[in-house]
């Protein structure tokens, strides 16, 4: 019953040992989507890269999430315009759309461009996402309003170009590509102190994990536990694309094999869920199963449950850039670390290579939250 369905679905690749000795140009801590995307870009440019992963590739949140690949940030678009400014929010969303195209290019058959539905669980949430829809349309983004998406929800936004994907297989695919380009992937290599790394520069790509490596990250990024379950195959095909509601506290999809993946409900026990501990929480597990049975009407048995940890920031934007001389970070995605994780990984790699970087990285400056 425990363990990520995504990690168990396919055999994990093995990576050739190069001895893990000798100084490299860049050492990366974390072999999730960010670390692997950055490693691929850096290795393709001819740099010597070593990726350290305490577990195995995709062993953290990158192999333990709900399998959503969405444009945008963690904040509702209309609120992002108010918080970051209209021009900055618009460019951020456009950048993530380009990032989603790149994500699909890298993922191949692990990615399905089926769109996503953001649903309203009550009238108040309906008013909020209607404001988001109006703002998206005003700024020229593709979106469709659906008045009656499915019972008992009160309206929804269809984001037509979003995607579902297989998280662990996607991340492993990135890691294999990075290794083939010359990066060294070292699994089972826990880093406790950055000073122990033999590298000219370091990239910390741990999102909500990696506590203790950098005091600035510890202060700015809050670890959040995310709980997910998957059912046995459900005969009725009802959720062919990613669905999310309750301000992101409930999200689900149905896989091509009929299984339903459901996650969220941190708000059932919010203080306890602000943790890097991956143990199960019976309160949240009960809330998930109640929603599965009573709201979604799914009676298929639960096959597996698992947890992952992501990092959250107060302004719901990641921290991406040089934090200390020679020490770079890309973390704190606030639950939107799939598409944005890949895009940020490539962007920070470009910065390390002294290539052009997108203007939106000014929003992500890691020094802003000191």
Structure in words:
There is one protein chain. This protein is an alpha/beta fold and 370 residues long. The chain has two domains: 5-65 and 167-221 and 315-369, FAD/NAD(P)-binding domain, CATH 3.50.50; 113-161 and 222-311, D-Amino Acid Oxidase, Chain A, domain 2 (2-Layer Sandwich). The protein is built from ten helices and 17 strands. The strands form three sheets. It has an eight-stranded mixed β-sheet with strand order 6-7-5-12-13-14-11-15, sandwiched between helices. A six-stranded mixed β-sheet has the order 9-2-1-10-17-16, covered by helices on one side. Helix 2 runs parallel beside helix 10 and helix 3 crosses helix 4. The longest helix has 22 residues, at 86-107. The mean pLDDT is 96.
Short key terms for the protein model shown above:
FAD/NAD(P)-binding domain; D-Amino Acid Oxidase, Chain A, domain 2; 2 domains; 6-stranded mixed β-sheet
Summarize the SSE layout with pairings.
Layout (H helix, E strand, L loop, with lengths): L4 H5 L14 E6 L3 H12 L4 E5 L14 E2 L7 H8 L1 H22 L3 E2 L3 E4 L3 H16 L5 E3 L9 E4 L3 E3 L1 H14 L3 E4 L11 E6 L10 H6 L1 E10 L11 E3 L4 E5 L5 E5 L5 H4 L8 H14 L6 E11 L6 E6 L2 E5 L7 H14 L18
Helix pairs in contact: 2-6, 2-10, 3-4, 4-10
Average pLDDT: 96
Sheet-strand content, in percent, reads 15-25%
Poorly predicted ranges: none
Helix share, percent = 25-40%
Global outline: globular
Number of contiguous helices: 10
Distance between the termini: 41 Å
Rg for CA atoms: 20 Å
Q: Give a count of the beta strands, DSSP E runs of length 2 or more.
A: 17
CATH superfamily of the largest domain: FAD/NAD(P)-binding domain
Question: How are strands sequenced across the largest beta sheet?
Answer: 6-7-5-12-13-14-11-15
The tally of domains stands at 2
Order of SSEs: HEHEEHHEEHEEEHEEHEEEEHHEEEH
């Amino acid at each position: 019953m425990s363990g990520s369905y995504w990690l168990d679905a396919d055999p994990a690749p093995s990576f050739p040992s190069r001895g893990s000795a000798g100084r490299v140009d860049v050492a990366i801590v974390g072999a999730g989507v960010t670390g692997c995307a950055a490693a691929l870009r850096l290795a393709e440019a001819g740099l010597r890269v070593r990726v350290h992963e305490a577990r195995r590739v995709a062993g953290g949140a990158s192999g333990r999430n709900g399998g959503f690949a969405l444009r945008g940030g963690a904040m509702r678009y209309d609120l992002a315009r108010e918080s970051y400014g209209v021009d900055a929010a618009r460019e951020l969303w456009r950048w993530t759309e380009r990032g989603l195209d790149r994500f699909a290019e890298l993922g191949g058959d692990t990615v399905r461009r089926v769109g996503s539905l953001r649903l309203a669980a009550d009238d108040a949430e309906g008013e909020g996402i209607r404001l988001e829809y109006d703002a998206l349309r005003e700024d020229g983004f593709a979106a469709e309003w659906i008045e009656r998406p499915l019972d008992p929800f009160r309206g929804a936004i269809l984001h037509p170009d979003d995607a579902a994907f297989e998280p662990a297989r996607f991340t492993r695919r990135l890691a294999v590509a990075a290794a083939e380009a010359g990066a060294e992937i070292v699994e089972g290599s826990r880093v406790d102190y950055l000073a122990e790394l033999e590298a000219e520069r370091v990239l910390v790509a741990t999102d909500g994990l990696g506590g203790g490596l950098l005091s600035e990250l510890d202060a700015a990024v809050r670890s959040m536990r995310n709980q997910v379950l998957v059912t046995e195959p459900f005969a009725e095909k009802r959720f062919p694309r990613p669905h999310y509601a309750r301000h992101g506290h409930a999200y689900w999809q149905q896989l091509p094999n009929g299984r339903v993946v459901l996650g969220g409900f941190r708000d059932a026990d919010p203080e306890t869920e602000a943790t890097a501990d991956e143990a199960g929480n019976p309160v949240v597990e009960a809330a998930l199963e109640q929603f599965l049975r009573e709201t979604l009407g799914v009676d298929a048995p639960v096959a597996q449950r698992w947890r992952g940890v992501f990092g959250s920031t107060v302004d719901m934007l990641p921290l991406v850039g040089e934090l200390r001389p020679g020490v770079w970070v890309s973390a704190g995605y606030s639950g939107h670390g799939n598409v944005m994780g890949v895009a940020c990984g490539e962007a920070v790699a470009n910065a390390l290579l002294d290539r052009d970087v997108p203007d939106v990285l000014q929003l992500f400056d890691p020094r802003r939250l000191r």
